[in-house]
Amino acid sequence: MGNLKILLCAYACEPGKGSEPEVGWGTAIVLAKKDTSNNYFVITRKNNREKIQSQNSPENLSFFYYELPNLFLKFKKAGNFTRIYYYLWMFGAVRFLRKRKINFDIIHHITFVNDWLPSVFIKLKNKRNIFIWGPVGSHDKVPGKFLFTNKEKLIEFFRIKLQWFFRRFDPYFNRCKNHSDLIIGINQNVNKKLGLNTDNFLVSPAIGMKKGVVNFDNSTCTEVFNVLSIGRLIHIKNFKLTLRSFSKFIDLIDKEKRKKVILTIVGSGNQKEELIKITKELRVFNNINFIEFLPQDQLMKLYNESNLFLFPTLESAGFVILEAMSSGLPIVALDYGGPGQFIKQRKEQQLVDPNLSIEEIENKISSLILRLFENKALRTEIGALNKNTILKEFTWEAKADKYINIYNSLLIKKPLHD
């Protein structure tokens, strides 16, 4: 493979921001650095231009910046219409690229990581190129026992129905499903959701870490036992369970030790006031520290100052899980979605069976926290194992190697320009 034109479709692509923007940026920058014999092109949004151009990109990596007219941007900002804007943006981006008249050999959809909205870039596929859809995925259906209010139940109901509608009726979704040369899912559940009866599917998580980031020496911890949790304060992140489990842990230790335990929650969202109210009802308000937002460098410093990462999320990914593991932290989470996928060792000391009752889950989480609280050597040992897992399997470098191998194998199956 050499001298190919490879298009990476990355609506979200921004260095230093984490989450999906980091997926776009991390994938593109490392692929181009490793695969210098080919030319990489990225189509992304105009609002990513400034951050991208402040970085040193390889010579074989070029960016196209496209945005819909201002009217659509105003519509996007007027409400929670990001997915609608993204869907329309792809149509405009395809038209934008066609005007450039570049014959791409490989078209690889990177972000959004979404398995119920199609990649409209499938319109660029023809008999002379290769189209890869993924990594794609979505949150699994939230078990009813984790939906504590009627509002949460209603939101979940409409979320599932909306996904079903697009998977059933969107013509571009069916084109992606039936005509992609390869579909990459973030987990095996994607295969089930899409109802695939094909061998052109493989599993590979979307997210990764820089090798240089996986070097934190978790040694700045003070006498205070710092528990960290990060994420948007919405129902799928399960912060109500986090607080109740933490409260039960507090009840297990004596009053003097309680003064030296802090749970820091970083994030904002529509549940914040309700969560603050819960901390008061549980009488742990003085042990909780809410922080709205931190830049990525300060966030990584906070990981380094923590002893444990508590994150019983119900989502399928979880960039923060990788960040915590790369910082040498033990994790306490549900054996569900992202955490269940990334934690490879000492699972029984970090993960809780989500099929237990809510009370059993809370008790199990609190007991795991207690054991790690009482045993510094165990925290250090598990943290080192987690860090090693990231270095072996979940760096951007490892992911780039995997993608390059995928490109080569697809080219063997389908030689170009014949």
TrEMBL record:
Domain Glycosyl transferase family: start-end pairs: 227-369
InterPro entries: Glyco_trans_1
SUPFAM superfamilies: UDP-Glycosyltransferase/glycogen phosphorylase
GO molecular function, one term: glycosyltransferase activity
Pfam families tied to this protein: Glycos_transf_1
Protein name (Swiss-Prot/TrEMBL): Glycosyl transferase family 1 domain-containing protein
